[in-house]
Amino acid sequence: xxxxxxxxxxxxxxxxxxxxxxxxxxxxxxxxxxxxxxxxxxxxxxxxxxxxxxxxxxxxxxxxxxxxxxx
Length: 71
Description:
The protein has 71 residues and is mainly alpha-helical.
């Protein structure tokens, strides 16, 4: 399990291939900044930790994206 508080700012949580593609798509479609993308990844890591998953998957990332406020 990874602790987000100890994760260096320059290091993103480990995403599986499909989750990485979803992140890239979300960044392009929503014009997310690097800071926003990193925040979503950290929330997704927390969701994955709660599910006891080693890697962040699509379902974890999708849930984290759902927590973002509407544009």
